[in-house]
């Protein structure tokens, strides 16, 4: 097909038209849900009045690491599913005029820049209350009206993932650009730990991504279809919301996101993605301490002195 505009001739091939149509149909991930309504009972009494997501890894709370990962992946709308005891999260991402004014008056520009840079320009926050703890699936469903008909990400701050220059969610967003389908982050786990994870049925020998044929929540080792456990990063198509509405309470008497994903893969492709990076399970005390040590050892201000301190302890 030939055409001309202002005397300039150009040719549009059938392949080029197909590319233009495909580009117009491709959807980008701009929204992310952060389920932060959990009670954090494994860290009591520290979490009695302070959200577990606000526990610091060196000098930043867990939730900030998750938000930074999302922003690095192109997310511009942050949706926090909270409860009445999580106001500290809202305050953290809001302006603190008294603190900022004090830092400005005292000439502490470096600290002022840190405080004002917690949430980048162009990124917005929304907060939704989950009235009672009914599981991860229910928490995601609480954000249905804000998601509407768009694909979205889900990040669990408990899972702190160090992906280096390519954070985990960025890797997944890049994979979504090719698949335009739901993606679940997985890692290899010990067969004895299957009761702690959702386990996927997928074969990843030939690469980092593979289509799933099944998923089950916290199976016994002899019932697990693989040793690939789901960790706290998801990209989901909007169809999951309809399925969550139909999902009954499952493991733990809660509405499980895993159960809805099991239904989703029956009607459209769902992929397992084995990410590059190191995951720290900060929902456990040991994992939290491991993350603190690892991040302290690479902190630009603390690394050398902290290493010496550790060596003195183990000497």
Structure commentary:
- The structure is a single chain.
- The protein is α/β, with parallel strands linked by helices.
- The protein has one domain: Spore Coat Polysaccharide Biosynthesis Protein SpsA, Chain A (Alpha-Beta Complex), CATH 3.90.550.
- The chain contains twelve helices and 16 strands.
- The model is unreliable at 1-12 and 17-24 (pLDDT under 50).
Can you describe this structure in just a few lines?
The chain is α/β, with parallel strands linked by helices and 315 residues long. The chain contains 12 helices and 16 strands.
Task: List the defining traits of the structure above.
alpha/beta; two-stranded antiparallel sheet; eight-stranded mixed beta sheet; disordered N terminus; 12 helices; 315 residues; Spore Coat Polysaccharide Biosynthesis Protein SpsA, Chain A
